[in-house]
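Amino Acid Chain and Its Fold in Token Form
===========================================
What this section holds: a protein sequence and its matching fold, both as plain text.
Structure line: whole-number tokens from a learned vocabulary of local backbone shapes, matched to residues.
Purpose: to set a sequence beside its fold so the mapping can be learned.
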Amino acid sequence: MENNFNFQRSFIDQNKNLILGILGGLVLLIGGYFVYKNFFVKPKNATAADQMFQAQFMFDRDSFQLALNNPGVGGSGFLKIIDNYGNTETGNLAKYYAGLCYLHLNDFDKAVKYLEDYSPSGDITPAMTYAALGDAYSEKKNNEKALSCYEKAAKAADNEMTGPYTLKKLGMFQEKLGKYADAEKSYKKIMDNFGQSTEANGIEPYYERAKIKATQK
């Protein structure tokens, strides 16, 4: 034990300057990140949020082109927010909104681009992002990718808001692909796990249909 201690102390003595240099670099790196985060990113994020308010308002009114490009009242469209504030939390959220806008406008390539660029977080947007990507890939006739996205959406959704919604989407797409046994399981999960949800109220006919078709295959 003593020999190990002496060896360690000798190593530190011989490499003292290198170790101090590394430690100093880490201090500068951490300090620089703190300054960047608090004195650069946070103010930019606040400005971006102010600029994006009108675009969100137009989005809620289904005015998707205006929300993307020119929401008016001094606000910026989602695309401009992405260009100017893409490294902020608000700029990241603008990618999600832009993807949804393009999905509603039937521009599925751009919908995929912005939704895949978006970094989701929290309890809601991961599931909803995968569900929207599933819709876009389905419209692009990429069934394999669409199914994967719907499966990820259902897996990410473990709450009353997104769970039954994504499971129903998954089940309906599984039926479309002729995967009736899988669809039956998806619908059953809604009945078992989210029995008080709006989707659960009308899911039994879907479940029975998938169950019957699964036995006929």
DSSP finds twelve helices and no strands in the chain. The longest helix spans residues 16-60.
